[in-house]
């Protein structure tokens, strides 16, 4: 009982601070296999082959700076939410890839099997669900449509360019091709300052 009002005491618990991070093109460098799903690339077979794309992704390297950023944010106390448009049927392969590359995470969210909606709609639903219990403070993604979703939701976004380098590291910093990007540790330190 609250001594002043005679009513029950209510304690508001803060939502945990979370970063959401994409897999394909963000954590996982899929440039060598993207031709299986992108009709604009040389080597496209005429039909999008997500089965081949995802099964071959196990051998793709990591974008090391993204993995480092996620690790540092985890050490700093951020909850890590992996948010991918991969179908749930690829969960074993995805979690295996994350483990092999030392990517920490607290939650992982997939597209439902046979959900053919756009990645933006899938991730919009995931965002709505995550936002109920987490304070989404940062997003890391490569898909321009999904980046637009994060930014329209007022979530600071680190954008990964098509070549795997940061297009933006910070709120509005653009990098020219070949320009060196800031140290990830420095970014985390600056980003967390009030």
Automatic annotation (TrEMBL):
Any Pfam family the entry gives: HAD_PNKP
Domain of life of the organism encoding this protein: Bacteria
Record-linked InterPro entries: HAD-like_sf, HAD_PNKP, HAD_sf
Name the UniProt record assigns to this protein: Polynucleotide kinase PNKP phosphatase domain-containing protein
Domain Polynucleotide kinase PNKP phosphatase: 16-161
